[in-house]
Amino acid sequence: MSLPVDVTKGAALYKNQCSSCHDDGNSIATKPDFGAQNDIDIIDRYGQFSCEYLSDCASQSSLSDYIHTAMPWGAVNNCDKSCASDIAAYIINLQQTSVPNLGPGDDDEDGVDNPSDLCPLKPGPARNNGCPVPTNAPDPDRGDQIAGLDVYTAQCSTCHGSHGGGTNIGPSLIQGECKVCGDFGDLVDIIEMSMPTPGACIDDCAINVATYVQSAFTASIQATNCAAEAPSPGIFPLRRLNKREYTNTIVDLFGVDKSLMNRIPAEQNSGFDNDAGVLGVNSSLVDSFIDASEVVAAAFVSTLSATPIVSSGDQCNTTSQCRTTYGASATDCVDSLSNQSYCQCGTDRCDAGASPSTSNRLLSCAALNDQCAFDFIKNAGQKIYRRPLSTQENKQLRALYTEGKSIDFAAGIQLVVEAMLQSPSFLYRAEFGTGSLSSGVTPLTSWEIATRLSYMFWATTPDDKLLKLAAEDKLRDKKVIAEQAQRLLSDNKAKKVLRLFFRNLIQQTKILAAPADPAIYPHMTAQAPQLYLKELDAFVDHILWQKEASWDEFLSADYTFVNNALAEVYGFTPPGSDDFVQVSEQGRHFGLFSLGAVVASRAHESETAPVLRGAFILQSFMCVSIEVPADDSGVEIKPPIPDPNSTTRERWIQATKGKDCEGCHRTLNPAGFAFENFDPTGRWREKDKNLPVDASVDLPGTDISGMYAGPAGLVNALVESEQAAQCAVQLWAQYSYGHEMHANTGGADECSMQSAYNTFIGKNKSVKELLIALTQTDAFLYRTEVK
């Protein structure tokens, strides 16, 4: 029995839950589709339910079932059956009533009943009745979309999801996220060669599935016209200082020993350590920030002497003489006509206190008095908060000083410093923009730009040059921003920040835990992990500062850097130096991929780990999304059983056969197999268990799909890969901005990433030029409105 429906209620539900994606449906009056966003049906951009090409939206039961199980997209069962029935009734009613003034056979309003006017409201894509094919429908000569949907549902949806958005065992097919779905021929080839297993779906089957995938998941998404669009900054989340940034900032502000910050726990994440998405706060972290603020404040005021020093004699004749001696804090020359005159600063004698240590970076007064404290609050507050204090903040901090001053001057200052270091305005990089809105977007203030620049390149608080430009409001000029970015990038402070990009990318904790067993590999020393890190740093520094900083060089350099100790690990001829020097062993160097930091950190105690190596390459250099099957997925993960008569490659091929594994491992395995010549310590080998190493690969699923004889061919393909270049831009942006980027077509960061990518390609993939370009994007210069 069908549910009773309420069209009026459905209209209200639709407005609240559906209209943000599908508009108000008014386009029905002029078009045979539903929803005005790029003529998209019921979110055909995610692909599964078509009103434009199919007849689903004409069926109350089909449409109601679909809404109940999938709408709003991705959130199952958030609209119950009654809700879904009412919305479906509203949509169908809208289609039936929103085409006024047209005769029953005159759909194009030309006054003539043409044959095509008799076409159904939602015609299918493959038809021979003379009905016109919608302009963004798939080519009917390619395949049968309906047949493709049937095959996709049966054979593909388990891995790629019914919505095409991917699962934990299969990548997304949505345009911008799927790098191979845009070319129909390539997509057919990939399906035939490997989907779901080689040869399982060929000829018409592959053509039909490709037709459905393109029409459902990719064809309806249109790239944004960035040149014509208003600024689109995407979303910049509220970011907390991570431990590295916190430590650098405290040291630069107060000059204290950085060991005082050891009480702050390091971030425990497997990606970039400045990713806002993992910089949460818990009670333990709050306690450590409070503890650190007290220790730092105590260390800071310990340089101030509480012993009064009062000068005798005739100090002044005029107030201006006092100001010449004591600065603006001097307010009066008391008893100016007597020989006991003295300069007054606020309520105290200007000389009634010891001058602070000259090494003190934030407090320098002629006398430690109220006026000195108030100047400190104003000036130091601006540096600590990275912006001028508000009137209310100034008032509150003065009140704290006054409270602490009941003990002495130092106690008052200590309370103020503790409060500022515990404030969200210090711990977080809050950004509100100028408040000047256009399309819900506001430019950032010069103070906020100064902060972004400094933490991007130096991972610390802005220096005096940036603060001066911010105070002059000059950091809203893109040319000035680029000049400052170049200045910061040229400083030694930037070297450590750029090194950390690679340490984060490769995961330093994995490098330090390189697991090769010295009992099996005697050349694996306890010092090897640290040597791998030093090799990585030397390699990175060389390309960034002595070469042209080309990303291609990072991927394909035919050299590395070793000292005598690391040469022993690799089996190289020792270079005769304890310092790291450049060496080249012919045919054994493949950029980052052959460094011990990569191959030795992705290994097991007794053998290599080709799956881990493959996952690293695909994730970190192709931006392919890979997830370990969830515990409740039913997929049992079993490493291959050791066998002295089989190579590691052979055993992994055998272990990952079958429908539960092969879908992912047919891509993961080959990328790792290409580097099987490197043993678990990073040493080159020709044999594995006395059997010849086979490093040839047949790699599907990316824009470098193909067969390669070994690592050299795969690396050269990565250098030529557009997908790899786009991935590099996305990763550098994520590290520079400190949050995940939505760079896919139609994504919030599409235009910013496209702008940076164009510069990257135009400047021979220079990483340094890319970093400058990233300071010129909408994502860097603007933010969405704060509500």
Explain this structure to me?
With 787 residues, this protein is mainly alpha-helical. The chain is built from 31 helices and 13 strands. The strands form six sheets. A three-stranded antiparallel β-sheet has the order 2-3-4. It has a two-stranded antiparallel sheet with strand order 1-5. Helix 11 (370-385) crosses helix 12, helix 11 (370-385) runs parallel beside helix 13 (409-422) and helix 29 (750-762) runs antiparallel to helix 30. The protein is globular and about 110 Å long. Mean pLDDT is 81; it is low at 25-50, 52-56, 73-77, 97-138, 306-311 and 354-359.
Largest sheet: 3 strands, antiparallel
Give the integer mean of the pLDDT values: 81
* Strand-residue proportion: under 5%
Q: Give helix % range.
A: 40-55%
Strand arrangement within the widest β-sheet reads 2-3-4
Contiguous low-pLDDT stretches (5 residues minimum) are: 25-50, 52-56, 73-77, 97-138, 306-311, 354-359
CA-based gyration radius: 33 Å
Counting helices, strands and paired strands, the structural category is mainly alpha
Shape: globular
Counting DSSP E segments of at least 2 residues, the number of strands comes to 13
Number of helices: 31
Beginning-to-end CA distance, first to last residue: 46 Å
